[in-house]
Design a protein that fits this description.
This protein is mainly β. The protein contains one helix and eight strands, in the order βββαβββββ.
Length: 91
């Protein structure tokens, strides 16, 4: 399982360009990849990527991340054509 915990967005468009992730829930490994690479990974390994986010001093396990139209990363199931990974750390 991979856990995305931070996103880097384009300052002009607000679109996610890169993500930081870890292999262990609650432990911050500093792996970074492009959104396109993460989309490829999720397409090849469905239901193996979730989000994790901070609430106070604790890490909370989020939802599964899925791909919409081979272009967007989302955690909810409404399939809107935009990125939505919840309230992750931005860097």
């Amino acid at each position: 399982m991979l856990f995305i915990y931070a996103v880097h967005k384009n300052t002009e468009t607000g679109v996610i360009e890169k993500v930081k992730y870890t292999r262990y829930f609650g432990y911050l490994e500093n792996f970074e990849t492009t959104k396109k690479e993460m989309i490829r990974y999720i397409n090849a390994h469905p239901d193996t990527v979730k989000t994790m986010y901070r609430r106070g001093a604790s890490w909370i396990e989020g939802e599964y991340v899925h791909v919409v139209d081979n272009e967007y990363l989302r955690t909810d199931a409404n399939y809107k054509r935009e990125d939505n990974l919840g309230e992750l750390i931005e860097y």
